[in-house]
TrEMBL record:
The keyword Transferase applies. Belongs to the thiolase-like superfamily. Beta-ketoacyl-ACP synthases family. It catalyses: (9Z)-hexadecenoyl-[ACP] + malonyl-[ACP] + H(+) = 3-oxo-(11Z)-octadecenoyl-[ACP] + holo-[ACP] + CO2; a fatty acyl-[ACP] + malonyl-[ACP] + H(+) = a 3-oxoacyl-[ACP] + holo-[ACP] + CO2. The active site is at 162 (for beta-ketoacyl synthase activity). Gene3D superfamilies: 3.40.47.10. This is 3-oxoacyl-[acyl-carrier-protein] synthase 2. Keywords: Acyltransferase, Fatty acid biosynthesis, Fatty acid metabolism, Lipid biosynthesis, Lipid metabolism, Transferase. It comes from Lactobacillus gallinarum. Pathway: Lipid metabolism; fatty acid biosynthesis. GO terms for cellular component: cytosol. Its EC number is 2.3.1.179. PROSITE patterns: KS3_2 (PS52004). GO terms for molecular function: 3-oxoacyl-[acyl-carrier-protein] synthase activity.
Length: 411
């Protein structure tokens, strides 16, 4: 089995465009949730979202290419480009057949679907764009990244709702660990701040109706009342340790474990006892060859829904013990919930935290729910050093995915 290291990372998130901006803002507790401006949301009953409002596709994607990509693919290409540039991967140091792509999305090109269905309704079926299907399908983030970087190993897409980004990174890790690839571009992307998605999630009563952006996303708070929809993308370049060292790459961190399970319980609600989530955490820890007390930080899924936060807290207590000192935070109080991209940006901030000995605060928890008996990070305890951290993602359909990361060390 090969060791799998991280050599590049890229992010576009509601609270920061680009890796440096995202990490610095997240560690400072900056909230990127704001009043919805992309469409008139007045009839949906929802007023805020984690919008991306500083994105220009010309810089990374290209003006011509962007016209043939849904926004979620554009976000994916930008973050993959940033990660590849950081890693220094190119055809001179990496064979195309050794480089693969696994890039997920929870929904895919929903903006394109919405636009083209409206056009068909208003103007007839012959006015539908010939690019409708290749823009809308959920594999095209992976497809466009593969084409952009001539990645000729596996190119595939994982769709496991809100676990898509984490499952994608986990499966890319397995490709390298088991010797089927030497380098992978991986992550997740989502662009669903549109009327269709907001209306659909609102109909599920899953979204917060709070009008104050600073008090809308409240992970683990006793007054939490639903998640805030976000958008964006996170990307990583993973390599085998041997490949990275051979080309002299700067190593940012290491993936040492991956656990994935199914609740097999309900289409939208998690198992209230957290059994499946707990098993996924334990699997990742076991694969890392460590014990729970060696984990210093957990990036929680922490959506700010009642069911998720209470179930995840129970799962953490099952694995770590109810009196554990492991520190926990959800970053969704700053970004909202990026669905299929959530796990990808959260993996990035977890690795950055290990590098910087500083981890993001659990923004949005003003009065911690007694049902969520976990050790949340605040401004006073966010700076500390630990060798290991995990990142949790749980999706509609019962999908659970957990990654275990290690601070980089050659030993």
């Amino acid at each position: 089995m090969q060791r799998v290291v991280i050599t590049g990372m890229g992010v576009i998130a509601p609270n920061g465009n680009g890796y440096e901006n995202f990490v610095n803002n997240s560690l400072a507790g900056k909230i990127g949730i704001k009043k919805i401006s992309k469409f008139d949301a007045s009839e949906t009953g929802i007023t805020v979202a984690g919008e991306i409002d500083d994105f220009d596709p010309k810089e990374y994607v290209g003006k011509k290419e962007a016209r043939r990509m849904d926004l979620y693919s554009q976000y994916a290409v930008q973050t993959a480009s940033e990660a590849v540039k950081m890693a220094g991967i190119n055809e001179e140091n990496t064979k195309p057949e050794d480089l693969g792509v696994i890039f997920g999305s929870g929904i895919g090109g929903l903006t394109t679907i919405e636009q083209q269905v409206i056009r068909m309704h208003d103007k007839g079926p012959r006015r539908v764009s010939p690019f409708f299907i290749p823009m809308a399908i959920a594999n095209m983030a992976a497809g466009n990244i593969s084409i952009r970087f001539n990645a000729q190993n596996i190119s595939t897409s994982i769709v496991t709702a809100c676990a898509s980004g984490t499952n994608s990174i986990g499966e890319a890790y397995r490709q390298i660990r088991e010797g089927r690839a030497q380098a992978m571009i991986t992550g997740g992307s989502e662009a669903t701040v549109n009327e269709t998605a907001i209306s659909g999630f609102a109909a599920l009563t899953a979204l917060s109706q709070n009008t104050d952006p600073d008090r809308a996303s409240l992970p683990f708070d006793q007054d939490r009342n639903g998640f805030v929809l976000g958008e964006g993308s996170g990307a990583m370049v993973l390599e085998s340790l041997e490949h990275a060292q051979k080309r002299g790459a700067k190593i940012l961190g290491e993936i040492v474990g991956y656990g994935t399970t199914s609740d097999a319980y309900h289409i939208t609600s998690p198992d209230p006892d957290g059994k499946g989530a707990a098993r996924a955490m334990q699997m990742a820890i076991d694969e890392a060859g460590i014990t729970p007390d060696e984990i210093g930080y957990i990036n929680a899924h922490g959506t700010a829904t009642h069911a998720n936060d209470s179930g995840e807290s129970k799962a953490i207590n099952q694995v770590f013990g109810s009196d554990s000192s492991v520190r926990v935070s959800s970053t969704k109080g700053m970004t909202g919930h990026l669905l299929g991209a959530a796990g990808a940006i959260e993996a990035v901030i977890t690795v950055a935290g290990l590098m910087k000995d500083k981890f993001p605060m659990n923004v949005g928890c003003f009065n911690q729910d007694p049902e969520c008996s976990i050790n949340l990070i605040n401004q006073d305890n966010q700076s500390f050093s630990t060798e290991y951290a995990i990142s949790n993602s749980f999706g509609f359909g019962g999908h659970n995915a957990v990654l275990a990361f290690r601070k980089w060390s050659e030993n």
